Backbone:
């Protein structure tokens, strides 16, 4: 296999893997932009993967499956919103609780919702249909970039969603509200904006997108269910939000980099190339890179508080009669 | 009718006791719903869990053995929490401890067997401390958010551990896991399956209580956690204390790993990331950072785990039920926490009053 | 001030307004009337109920009972949008602006009939047109956090005008302005009044009332105690008495001025901001002797906070020296400086002065818990701490249920007393007090000032930063004026003239006065 082929295949794998990350990251960007930190991503994505897979397994309808994944994701993030916004709980343990609950429940149900023939286990089952790649003629034959035109519907949807998410945030009046609520909720409230409503809305939307991201894994990437199949991707999403400096447009960069590194391992094996670096090192390298990049970005941010800064009210709760 | 939350002008101790208890009950009710959905009888299931955790002397011993690393991780996380530092990395620091003691047990053959355990423990503790110290330094020196750094450190070291037990340190026989530690260097049992680690845990509880509540350092940690800026104004060094606290926190989590390895698993192998670090977070949160309450909470959490193992054996239910319940306890606890500082008011709108 | 017509229907009438908060009756059957083209000054101490009353007019709170009539019609104001629809808008003390968004975005944020994609070009034009009409210089594309305080206030005013407000409420508008900027504000207000707009401004400064208003209404402890035309006030003293309810002492007892040796010496202090730019502290030099109160005047935000932080070790300086009690303490840690004998009463008592969730007793012991007085071998002796705390609570008359109550449950005045008690008890010759009477009622303010003078009479060197010229004139021996990080001049308090100080505060050089 020549270099061009390899890179094309790598890009393809990156896009497939990155799709899941991108949906969840977009969701969390919006959630955090309004000031709510949702660390429940890992649990929500896993529940989304489960919900999607079960629905597809039982009904064969992929679109219904996506809807269920989004509903489930929305439900879990609704709990998170309730805890953080109405009950003013500390957002860090609240998110961790959602992750623990979501992960536990998903693994639990994964062993109960399967067919009796498999001991009620969903592991090892196949869904009748999956989101497979659709190639656009001519464009998909271009070396390297051709991979962009040979992806699943889920990825194609992203090509439209990401620019829209950027446009919505910076050019529309709703985006203005989102940014104001996360930066200075007191001001937003004084302008008649219901900070509570906005935060609920975008936390739930964020959760829905995360559920969708999880479903991308079980319905397209590896169409199957496995216990704990998100394998920490939910945490990478949190890191990606920071990389993207809370800007939907920049989500592209992070997802490509991360998707790329994670895919590198498999792509190299598929190409039959001998691994110089032990596979486990490659396995934990995304986390190491996240760590280093996080430290670097924080330090840079301190030198210039500019477009790299987090929303000022991130992680805080707001009540109108707080003195 | 509208509901409104109003700040109290005192801290309700009644609520501080009521809320955790009610949360426990709520979680069992919610758990029952989950069980019902999956076609299981909740009463049967809970009964099986209680029997599985406490039913016989052996089972009780299993539960106690499990509670030791949980308690230690809970204490470790609790120290960091005192400073409002989110140490999500106890899991990784635990693994660091196991790596440390394994290194000594397997490769420091120049030591007499009698010294393997003590030296191994020290090295393991140091590894744990290091793994906790790094995020501590990053936060103290450059204000890098600790939630993510501690989390990332987990996955890095777990991945590294995997490399060790699959690859570099793998025992010649079998396809994973290091060589078992020499029998003479194991941490001995003292009562059935319960091992000497329990002494370490209990002594640590007492020691920590003393340090946190009686000493100057404990006072300073309290100040930092409750108002960093004011503490700074009083001359307390924030940087130094964050680093020290994280070194201690990592050390204790490392100790948890060391003890478990020396007494129970006797090797580094798959499953070293048993989740004690994450459960430790719940324990710390639920105990209100009081070391003595941590003991009770750890036993409950351990019971949930051994209980759900029994659940799998007797009722063929997935043992993820334990994790579900643990998550379910935290949620009402977090929701109810607010009632300690706020009271709920029911307000009749003006329309209702004039009607 | 021009004449106002009182025979028309008033633009605003608040009738019998009552509002409760937990434990406090904020407004007690208050009536308020505002006519077209009128400027009403709402005067009262902190906690008198002025802001609460106005917050109800703009829909942030709802009254428990009473009615509000706007332009003759009964109004049901449940949100800021309701009040804006009626033409009422408020400029709060803490500006309601989003720092990282532009002026234009801030002005149209949350407006109901804004299209999905707001037409920014049109908006910019309208803003420029309005700003020309009222003489408010504002650039629509600048980012809020890059603007000066005065500019930000102008954006706030423009925000209200853009949305069609004709009744403007201003909360302590001149608190952040220099005397010159305050006069500019007055000109802008006059232009608006000429167009038929009306204004209420909340203040606790009596000279503002006299200069800018037609009518003054005094609130005291939630009740309205008087309403009269400003012209009818003969003595400012009368206004003050109405505000407080008793004869206010305007002078305090102090010993003779007998300064001792130099205890604080600051030379050529230079501090640069992190991201580069103009120095925050620009070659500051001064000295303070024992037995002397050295006041620092100036509009907040001109480097005063940074100066005190540099002296107490909380801020690193890039150049110059600080000598405390004869030792070089430049860039040393707060702990080392505390050990040298420096006590600090910080600007923000809640955030810097006390740990709210810890008890009164614990807070009192925060300066001495390291010493043998309260501890031994790293262990804090609780018995000693309790006796120590009891003593201080009595000595400084701190009102608290007991020493185990969390300090956050105390009133502002008692929190300040706790800080005073702790700092004065441990004072080693140097006391740094930063805006110590901010937000306190008259009684507590007096207590603070008495304590400062007592320390000075004992031989302490006191550095007092204050926003109120009258406080400095009353209490200080010397006054330095800071502007943009520089000391404009240092004068003897007994010779100082308010006008001169005002000009120095505005940046006018001494030689140009």
Residues:
């Amino acid at each position: 296999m020549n270099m061009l082929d390899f890179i094309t295949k790598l890009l393809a794998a990156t896009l497939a893997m990155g799709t899941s990350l991108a949906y969840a990251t977009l969701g969390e960007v919006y959630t955090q932009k309004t000031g709510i930190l949702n660390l429940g991503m890992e649990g929500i994505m896993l529940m989304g993967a489960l919900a999607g897979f079960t629905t597809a397994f039982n009904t064969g309808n992929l679109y219904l499956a996506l809807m269920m994944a989004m509903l489930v994701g929305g439900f879990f993030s609704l709990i998170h919103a309730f805890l953080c916004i109405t009950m003013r709980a500390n957002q860090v343990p609240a998110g961790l609780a959602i992750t623990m609950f979501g992960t536990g429940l998903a693994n639990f149900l994964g062993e109960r919702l399967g067919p009796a023939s498999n001991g009620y286990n969903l592991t090892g089952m196949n869904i009748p249909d999956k989101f497979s790649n659709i190639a656009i003629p001519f464009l998909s034959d271009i070396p390297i970039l051709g991979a962009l035109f040979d992806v699943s519907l889920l990825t194609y949807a992203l090509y439209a969603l990401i620019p829209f998410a950027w446009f919505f945030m910076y050019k529309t009046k709703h985006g203005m509200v989102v940014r104001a609520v996360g930066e200075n909720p007191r001001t937003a409230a004084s302008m008649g904006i219901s900070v509570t409503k906005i935060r609920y809305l975008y936390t739930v939307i964020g959760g829905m997108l995360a559920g969708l991201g999880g479903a991308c894994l079980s319905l397209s990437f590896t169409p199957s269910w496995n216990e704990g199949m998100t394998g920490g991707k939910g945490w990478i999403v949190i890191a990606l939000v920071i990389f993207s400096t809370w800007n939907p447009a920049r989500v592209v960069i992070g997802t490509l980099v991360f998707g790329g590194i994670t895919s590198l391992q498999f792509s190299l094996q598929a190409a039959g190339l001998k691994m110089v670096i032990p596979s486990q090192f490659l396995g934990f390298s995304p986390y190491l890179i996240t760590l280093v990049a996080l430290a670097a970005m924080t330090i840079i941010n301190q030198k210039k508080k500019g477009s790299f800064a987090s929303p000022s009210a991130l992680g805080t709760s707001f009540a109108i009669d707080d003195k | 009718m509208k509901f409104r939350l109003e700040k109290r002008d005192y801290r309700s101790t009644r609520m501080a006791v009521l809320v955790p208890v009610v949360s426990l009950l709520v979680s069992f009710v919610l758990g029952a719903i989950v069980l019902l959905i999956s076609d299981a009888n909740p009463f049967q299931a809970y009964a099986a869990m209680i029997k599985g955790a406490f039913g016989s002397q052996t089972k009780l011993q299993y539960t106690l053995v499990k509670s030791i690393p949980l308690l230690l991780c809970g204490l470790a996380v609790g120290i960091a929490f005192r400073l409002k530092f989110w140490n999500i990395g106890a899991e990784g620091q635990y693994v660091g401890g196991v790596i440390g003691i394994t290194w000594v047990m397997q490769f420091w053959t120049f030591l007499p067997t009698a010294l393997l355990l003590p030296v191994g423990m020290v090295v393991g503790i140091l590894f744990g401390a290091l793994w906790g110290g790094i995020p501590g330094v990053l936060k103290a020196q450059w204000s890098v958010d600790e939630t993510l750094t501690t989390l990332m450190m987990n996955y890095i070291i777990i991945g590294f551990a995997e490399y060790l037990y699959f690859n570099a340190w793998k025992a010649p026989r079998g396809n994973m896991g290091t060589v078992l530690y020499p029998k003479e260097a194991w941490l001995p049992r003292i009562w059935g399956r319960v091992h000497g680690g329990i002494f370490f845990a209990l002594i640590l509880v007492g020691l920590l209580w003393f340090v946190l509540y009686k000493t100057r350092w404990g006072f300073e940690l309290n100040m930092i956690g409750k108002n960093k800026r004011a503490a700074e104004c009083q001359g307390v060094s924030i940087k130094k204390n964050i680093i020290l606290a994280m070194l201690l926190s990592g050390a204790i989590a490392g100790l948890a790993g060391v003890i478990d390895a020396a007494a129970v698993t006797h090797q580094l192998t798959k499953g070293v990331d048993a989740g004690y670090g994450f459960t430790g977070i719940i324990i710390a949160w639920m105990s209100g950072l009081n070391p003595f309450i941590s003991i009770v909470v750890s036993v409950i959490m351990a019971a949930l785990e051994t209980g759900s193992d029994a659940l799998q054996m007797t009722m063929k239910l997935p043992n993820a039920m334990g994790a579900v319940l643990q998550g379910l306890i935290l949620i009402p606890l977090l929701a109810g926490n607010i009632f300690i500082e706020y009271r709920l008011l029911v307000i009749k709108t003006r329309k209702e009053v004039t009607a | 001030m021009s004449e106002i017509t009182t025979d028309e229907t008033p633009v605003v009438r608040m009738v019998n307004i009552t509002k409760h908060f937990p434990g406090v009756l904020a407004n007690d059957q208050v009536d308020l009337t505002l006519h077209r083209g009128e400027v009403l000054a709402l005067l009262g101490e902190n906690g008198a109920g002025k802001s609460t009353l106005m917050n109800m007019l703009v829909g942030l709170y709802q009254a428990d009972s009473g009615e509000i009539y706007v332009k003759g019609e009964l109004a049901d104001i449940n949100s800021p949008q309701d009040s804006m629809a009626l033409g009422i808008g408020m400029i709060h003390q803490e500006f309601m602006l989003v720092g990282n968004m532009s002026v234009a975005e801030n002005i149209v944020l949350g407006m109901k009939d804004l299209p999905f994609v707001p037409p920014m070009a049109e908006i910019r034009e309208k803003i420029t047109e309005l700003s020309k009409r009222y003489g408010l210089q504002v650039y629509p594309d600048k980012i809020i956090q890059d603007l000066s305080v005065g500019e930000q206030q102008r954006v706030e005013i423009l925000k209200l005008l853009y949305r069609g407000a004709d009744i403007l409420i201003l909360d302590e508008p001149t608190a952040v302005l220099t005397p010159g900027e305050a006069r500019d504000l007055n000109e802008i207000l006059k232009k608006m009044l000429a167009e038929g707009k009306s204004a209420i401004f909340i203040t606790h400064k009596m000279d503002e009332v006299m200069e800018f208003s037609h009518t003054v209404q005094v609130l005291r402890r939630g009740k309205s105690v008087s309403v009269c035309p400003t012209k009818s006030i003969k003595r400012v003293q009368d206004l003050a008495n109405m505000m407080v309810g008793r004869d206010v002492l305007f002078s305090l007892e102090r010993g003779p001025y007998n300064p001792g040796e130099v205890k604080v010496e600051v030379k050529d202090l230079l501090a640069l901001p992190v991201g580069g730019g103009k120095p925050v502290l620009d070659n500051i030099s001064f000295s303070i002797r024992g037995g002397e109160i050295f006041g620092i005047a100036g509009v907040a935000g001109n480097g005063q906070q940074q100066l005190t932080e540099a002296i107490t070790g909380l801020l690193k300086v890039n150049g110059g020296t600080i000598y405390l009690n004869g030792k070089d303490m430049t860039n040393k840690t707060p702990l080392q400086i505390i050990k040298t004998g420096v006590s600090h009463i910080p600007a923000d008592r809640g955030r810097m002065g006390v740990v709210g969730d810890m008890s009164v007793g614990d807070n009192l012991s925060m300066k001495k818990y390291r010493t043998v007085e309260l501890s031994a071998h790293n262990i804090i002796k609780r018995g000693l701490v309790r006796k120590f705390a009891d003593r201080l609570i009595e000595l400084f008359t701190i009102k608290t249920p007991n020493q185990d109550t969390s300090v956050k449950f105390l009133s502002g005045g008692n929190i300040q007393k706790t800080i005073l008690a702790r700092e004065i008890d441990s004072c080693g010759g140097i006391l740094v007090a930063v805006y110590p009477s901010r937000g306190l009622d008259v009684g507590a303010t007096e207590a603070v000032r008495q304590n400062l003078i007592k320390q000075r009479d004992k031989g302490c060197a006191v550095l007092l930063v204050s926003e109120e010229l009258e406080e400095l004139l009353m209490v200080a021996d010397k006054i330095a004026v800071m502007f943009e990080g520089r000391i404009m001049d240092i004068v003897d308090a007994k010779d100082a003239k308010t006008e001169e100080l005002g000009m120095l505060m505005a940046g006018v050089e001494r030689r140009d006065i």
User: Anything to note?
Assistant: The CA atoms of residues 282 and 330 of chain B lie 7 Å apart.
